[in-house]
């Protein structure tokens, strides 16, 4: 198993920002994760799990203790209409495997750049679909190193919410129940959604997806757009000129630049429209 010390996380985050991990490990099996959790518990190290870092800002001070990236646990298996994906599998790859097996239901995720673990953790959604519509159960590891099989009810999905968040569990794998469909039709729907995404979102620049949650009754992107903030920039982090709900790294941004732009956007939208924008991105790690 690969383990790195003092490893810059900017190499792994989609924003290309963030400080160093004291210890960064790439486990290849549940056994590896259990060994790492045991080691961390014995040495009183905190544990942080990162998926594809597509909806994440790691502060410039980095992450103490042990950080895990699960991309080496990426097996996807299919039995009839049931698809099981390990936590480190990419969501996009999972949609391709479903399509190849004529399975319909996760077309909505064709362009979601996260991992299966991150997608369950955040109850990922786009274009009217979300993880809760198709996931029937997940295997998780508890902080005291026990593997649990949780059904959908126990996962307690809500808007960008899942019970894994407050129980500090690590998602190991997820089971999806899909329906049989036509391979061509599934592919067409995935292509269509990817075209919509490419037309609206700044996919050509580093970002962390939608920075803010949808406030009830509003769209974050529209509020930021109407506040005249598109193009607003601090350091190398800029409110996207293409989609105001994104902050793009246009010139060697730091995580601090991102956080300063977020603060300014929140204050401006509050002042102009009286709406509180809550971050959807996870912000983790220490200040510099
Ligand atoms: N709709 C869209 O177009 C887009 C949606 N997204 C969303 O963001 C999600 C982020 O996914 P991803 O990039 O993989 O995640 P990230 O690496 O961005 O991690 C986000 C958080 O997820 C938690 N996490 C990740 N993997 C696991 C795991 N195996 N077990 C437990 N917790 C985990 C971590 O929580 P902690 O810090 O507490 O350990 C982490 O802080 C996507 O799946 C999707 O929901 C992202 C971009 C675009
Ligand atoms: C990118 C993410 O998810 C995305 C997901 O891909 C898309 C597609 O379904 O819908 C959400 O974006 P969104 O709420 O910004 O949806 P969009 O349809 O792009 O925009 C909403 C509305 O705001 C308007 N809008 C958007 C951007 C902008 O600069 N100006 C503007 O006026 C749009 O015209 C539209 O009327 C998800 N974000 C949230 C917070 O719900 C993510 O979670 O990281």
Low-confidence stretches: none
Number of strands: 18
Q: What is the makeup of the main sheet? A: 5 strands, antiparallel
Helix content: 25-40%
Written overview of the protein:
Its EC number is 1.3.1.98. Keywords: Cell cycle, Cell division, Cell shape, Cell wall biogenesis/degradation, Cytoplasm, FAD, Flavoprotein, NADP, Oxidoreductase, Peptidoglycan synthesis. One of its GO terms (cellular component) is cytosol. InterPro entries: FAD-bd_PCMH, FAD-bd_PCMH-like_sf, FAD-bd_PCMH_sub1, FAD-bd_PCMH_sub2, MurB, MurB_C, MurB_C_sf, Oxid_FAD_bind_N. Its cofactor is FAD. By secondary structure, the chain is of the alpha+beta class. The protein folds into 3 domains: 2-69, Uridine Diphospho-n-acetylenolpyruvylglucosamine Reductase, domain 2 (2-Layer Sandwich); 76-200, 2-Layer Sandwich (Uridine Diphospho-n-acetylenolpyruvylglucosamine Reductase, domain 3); 220-284, Uridine Diphospho-n-acetylenolpyruvylglucosamine Reductase, domain 1 (Alpha-Beta Complex). Helix content is 30%, strand content 26%. It has 9 helices and 18 strands. It has helices spanning 30-42, 91-100, 116-122, 131-134, 152-155, 164-167, 183-200, 220-226, 255-273, and strands at residues 2-8, 20-26, 47-50, 56-58, 63-69, 76-79, 82-86, 103-104, 125-126, 129-130, 135-141, 147-151, 170-177, 179-180, 233-234, 237-239, 247-249, 282-284. A 5-stranded antiparallel beta sheet has the order 6-7-13-11-12. A 4-stranded mixed beta sheet has the order 1-2-5-3, covered by helices on one side. A hairpin with a 5-residue loop joins strand 11 and strand 12 (147-151). The longest helix is centred in the C-terminal third of the chain and has 19 residues, at 255-273. The protein is globular and about 50 Å long. The model has no long low-confidence stretch (mean pLDDT 97). It binds NADPH dihydro-nicotinamide-adenine-dinucleotide phosphate (NDP) and uridine-diphosphate-2(N-acetylglucosaminyl) butyric acid. Uridine-diphosphate-2(N-acetylglucosaminyl) butyric acid (EPU) binds at residues 55, 126-127, 200, 209-210, 213-214, 219-222, 225, 243-245, 280.
